[in-house]
Amino acid sequence: MKKRKYSTPLAEAIRIAYTRGEGDEDLEPLVLVDNDNSPIGRFMPNDALIFANIRGEREVELTQALTSKQLNHFPIVPLNLCVTTMIQYHPDLPVNIAFPPTANLSNTLTELLTKQGKRVLKCVESEKAIHLTYFFNGKQHTQFKNEDRIIIPSYETENLADYPEMKAAEVADATIAEMKKGIYDLIVTNISPCDVMGHIEEKNIVGQAIHAVDKQLGRIVTAAINVGYTVLVTADHGVAESWLYPDGTIDTGHTSNPVPFLIVSEMKEEILLKTGGSLVDIAPTIIDILGLEKPQEMEGRTLLKTGIGFSSHRILLLILDGWGYNPDTYGNLFLEFGTPNMDKLKIDFPFTTLIASGTRLGMPEGTVGNSEIGHLHMGIGRRIVSDRVRIFEAIETGDFFHNDAFLKAINYVKNNKTSLHLLGIISFYSSHGSIKYLEALMGLAKRKNIHKVFLHGMLGRRGEKPESGAHYVNQLELKAQEMEIAKVVSIIGRHWALDREENWERIEKTYELLVNGKGRQIIDTNF
């Protein structure tokens, strides 16, 4: 008889799912059942839930389903849950927030320009729309007066690899058309394929994405020069420029490398760029080029060494999502597949690199960048401490265990004699959170003598080695056994749970798992 690789039931079930061709991100729902095949730890009326994810925009739809009394997209059962979210996902959700926003980020780049009568356009496909709107505007859902948006629908497909170029050409077409009109003082365009395809473990697919983005880069820059736009080319973070771990396995995660920054202008001979800058410095640079005064809230500094009177006060900020800079050839798919347009621009125009991760962007030292942090700091022109840092500091100081929002959930469970559910990403490091959050919340429940704690996990391999999900679930199951008050009872791939484009059939699958126990049944060997 073949020995089990893992001693815990859900970790072993995930390992077996790998043999069926499932990955962490698309893992079909797994539900723990007792000896009578009854699902364990389902959401029941008057239970409490702590949704432990951060970031927020992909968590809104599932939170809506769990807190609504009625939902138009699929049938739900009103549960009267006491829901706590780790951060604010959306201001209209009826939840308690453990780590609310620390401040209203005023005088962002978009707000400043539009208030001064400048016209701003955001151009992006829907896959990345939230980054160019909500995050770029300082985590605000507001669309300012004089701010227009062109959002091109991404392909509707379960297999992103079917369309490696995504809608790069269409986004480029729209950008070029709007530049020709000459009515916008600032156009911000995001070209998405390098990031989205960089997370897929198929080298040729990533290569096609790189070629597509480089091709559209060439088209857009040529058009901009012809119509008198100054172009700032940069990225929010890297992916495929360091696509391999040292041992040769594929690393689909984001990187800590800097990103390129160059200015395409007919005044190139006069432009000298500073070194050592970060994404925080992009907004002040745009303000400088436009000849405006930088607001006191912006800590960033212009990347221009000397003041220049630009002949054109129309700017295109072109964000090549996921295009990092790495001179090393090892695992560097940009160098392997070639980027002739970017290579020529780096020779012909002023070029430098910008820090896009770590402490300079309010993240823990040595951590990788991501689209949310990248677009946020580009748009606000100042460094803000990330939610990740705030939460880890609270765990270290002990404040985490006295958090009012968490204690409301604990007291709700005690008063109603019900169960506490912990829901979140199970990963060592993800832009959506950490396994450490779930472990800390279990510790809080144990301190407060809560004995019915059920954990529901989401998996997503980005930035992790192959089949890492089973490893981390095993770690969490063992931790729950050690604490004796908790149990990991369901697992699902993040593809199904974390949606932001109203693919409600995915959210329904997650809801049915959490509430009705629908999924592949795994017998609790410790029942």
Give the SSE layout.
Layout: H1 9-19, E1 30-33, E2 48-51, H2 60-67, E3 82-87, E4 96-99, H3 109-115, E5 120-125, H4 129-135, E6 147-152, H5 168-181, E7 186-191, H6 193-198, H7 203-227, E8 230-234, E9 259-264, H8 282-289, E10 315-320, H9 333-337, H10 340-348, E11 351-354, H11 371-380, H12 387-397, H13 404-416, E12 420-425, H14 435-447, E13 453-459, H15 468-483, E14 486-493, H16 494-497, H17 504-516, E15 520-523
Parallel strand pairs: 1-15, 2-3, 2-12, 3-4, 5-6, 5-7, 7-10, 8-10, 12-13, 13-14
Antiparallel strand pairs: 1-14, 8-9, 9-11
Helix pairs in contact: 1-15, 2-17, 4-11, 5-7, 14-15
How far apart lie the N and C ends? 23 Å
User: Taking Cα atoms only, what radius of gyration do you get, to the nearest Å?
Assistant: 24 Å
Largest sheet: 8 strands, mixed
CATH superfamily assignment of the largest domain?
A: Alkaline Phosphatase, subunit A
Quote the CATH topology of the largest domain: Alkaline Phosphatase, subunit A
Derived from helix and strand composition plus strand pairing, the structural class reads alpha/beta
Explain the overall architecture.
The structure is a single chain. With 527 residues, the protein is an alpha/beta fold. Helix content is 34%, strand content 16%. It folds into 2 domains: 9-100 and 403-523, 2,3-Bisphosphoglycerate-independent phosphoglycerate mutase, substrate-binding domain, CATH 3.40.1450; 109-384, Alkaline Phosphatase, subunit A (3-Layer(aba) Sandwich). The protein has helices at 9-19, 60-67, 109-115, 129-135, 168-181, 193-198, 203-227, 282-289, 333-337, 340-348, 371-380, 387-397, 404-416, 435-447, 468-483, 494-497, 504-516, and strands at residues 30-33, 48-51, 82-87, 96-99, 120-125, 147-152, 186-191, 230-234, 259-264, 315-320, 351-354, 420-425, 453-459, 486-493, 520-523. The strands form 2 sheets. The chain has an 8-stranded mixed β-sheet with strand order 4-3-2-12-13-14-1-15, sandwiched between helices. α4 (129-135) links the parallel β5 and β6 (147-152). The two termini are 23 Å apart.
